[in-house]
Amino acid sequence: MASFYSLRVLSVERETSDSVVVSFDVPAELRDSFSFEAGQYLTLRTPIEGEEVRRSYSLCSAPHEGAWKVGIKKVPGGKFSTFASEVLEAGAEMDVMNPQGRFLLKEGSGLHHLGIAAGSGITPILSQIKQVLSEDPAASYSLFYSNKTAASTMFREELQDLKDRFLDRLRVFYLLTREPVDADLLSGRLDQDRCKRLIDTFCKGRTLDAAYLCGPESMIMNCKEALVEAGMAEGDVKFELFTSASAVKPQVQVVETLDTDTVMMQVVLDGVTTSVELEKDKNLLDAALDAGLDAPYSCLGGVCCTCRAKMVEGKATMNINYALEPGEVERGYVLSCQAHVDGSGPVVLDFDQQ
Ligand SMILES: Cc1cc2nc3c(=O)[nH]c(=O)nc-3n(C[C@H](O)[C@H](O)[C@H](O)COP(=O)(O)OP(=O)(O)OC[C@H]3O[C@@H](n4cnc5c(N)ncnc54)[C@H](O)[C@@H]3O)c2cc1C
């Protein structure tokens, strides 16, 4: 169940001039709640200039390391990332939600995994590389990692150490967009054509068993197309979005088919059922929050899956969904921050069914 816990910040270490790595102290009694899989994220909550701000950050540490670390890259004008980079110090207390997310490694032994990351998108992929190469001696990993400049590349040193340790099983290809690189193929934006050429050149003769994409939305969608064109099954190409153009400006969708102004909704949260009046133009999460319930959420843009809940009764339509798999939607799961009720029948929304 998704809940916030107060954790102490163990350290805040500078990674590049515009990024930091924040490490949390998870006490023994919370270790079960905070167990995680590579690719999952933490949601952090703290007051900044009098306003409660919550943001998600992928764990860049791997489960076997016994550490809870996130890498935060400063976004110009960004509230939380600027706070983390300039104000946050070791010893501070912060509300941290137990790990969430389904950007997970494909199961199986001896697979060749392909990661494509840009900028801070390296964080979940770094965790995955460490986990799969440590746990499966037959696994191999190829990484295409794009950054503006060499100096702004996060975790360069750690990746170098990993390459030395897993000499024959880890390959890292750095791409730079704002600095010249000797090889023309590694210089410039990672678009569909470049992705295709990278695969043709560096993955020739290797099976592509699973791919993990994390970076700007356009890069993700272009590389996904290239990988599917190269013969990968869509289900084997996973991605994690940190933000999206459509998520930044959510379109409010009023459901026309609703014939009453309000619907009764039962919300199941932490084992307690509460009746909530749901107005027709409100999303399910807002209705629960407005009723005083401490329902889980983070991005509010359909990108993360912190607000995932199951429609046990009733139907809903989502404006945006970048996080749920088709099978989950079929089973009745919704991103409650994006879901509007369809029809006028009663609704039962369960946050506890994960
Ligand atoms: C599941 C998940 C995992 C994430 N993991 C990481 C991570 O490991 N490391 C990391 O640094 N970030 C990560 N993020 C992004 C992070 O949650 C914040 O969105 C980011 O730090 C910006 O927050 P902010 O408060 O500083 O900016 P805000 O005050 O929210 O935004 C300021 C401006 O920057 C724009 N903006 C917001 N995010 C980005 C972005 N990522 N790139 C470019 N422009 C942006 C906004 O549209 C706005 O215009 C993750 C997001 C999700 C949903």
Structure report:
By secondary structure, the chain is α/β, with parallel strands linked by helices. It folds into three domains: 94 residues, Beta Barrel (Elongation Factor Tu (Ef-tu), domain 3), CATH 2.40.30.10; 131 residues, Rossmann fold, CATH 3.40.50; 89 residues, Ubiquitin-like (UB roll), CATH 3.10.20. The chain has eight helices and 18 strands. The strands form four sheets. A six-stranded antiparallel sheet has the order 4-3-6-1-2-5, with helices on one face. A five-stranded parallel sheet has the order 9-8-7-10-11, with helices on both faces. A five-stranded mixed sheet has the order 13-12-18-14-16. Helix 4 crosses helix 5. The longest helix is centred in the middle third of the chain and has 14 residues. It binds flavin-adenine dinucleotide.
* Total helical segments: 8
Radius of gyration: 21 Å
Percentage of β-strand residues: 25-35%
From the 3D coordinates, which CATH architecture of the largest domain would you assign? Answer: 3-Layer(aba) Sandwich
Please identify which CATH superfamily of the largest domain we are dealing with.
Answer: Nucleotide-binding domain of ferredoxin-NADP reductase (FNR) module
Alpha-beta classification: alpha/beta
Could you name the CATH topology of the largest domain?
Rossmann fold
Bound molecules: flavin-adenine dinucleotide
Which strand order do you get reading across the main beta sheet?
Answer: 4-3-6-1-2-5
Shape: globular
CATH class of the largest domain: Alpha Beta
- The proportion of residues forming helix, as a percent range, comes to 10-25%
Mean pLDDT across all residues, rounded? 93
Distance between the termini: 7 Å
Would you list the SSEs in sequence order as H and E?
EEEEEHEEHEHEHEHEHEEHEEHEEE
Any low-confidence stretches, pLDDT <50, length ≥5?
248-258
Count of extended strands = 18
